[in-house]
Fold:
Amino acid sequence: MKEKYDFKAAKRGAVVESTGKTRITIFLDDDVLEAFRQRAASEGKGYQTLINDTLRQAITPGAAPVTVDALRRVLREELHAA
Structure:
């Protein structure tokens, strides 16, 4: 290995553009990131893909999980109608 390299005539290689995705920098809590990494390892996916899927579900109307309060409200309405 040389001590010094001469990059005066160097040229940047081709940069492949990504379609439909943007590279960003984001700060996440360590425990949140670790949870996604563990889940990704168990599911055989990338942790960034899981984070993206989770964010997509959060912004998709009607994709919210059923909460206990919502379930109780629906059960009360159905029992009252019966």
User: Anything to note?
Assistant: The chain is about 50% helix and 0% strand.
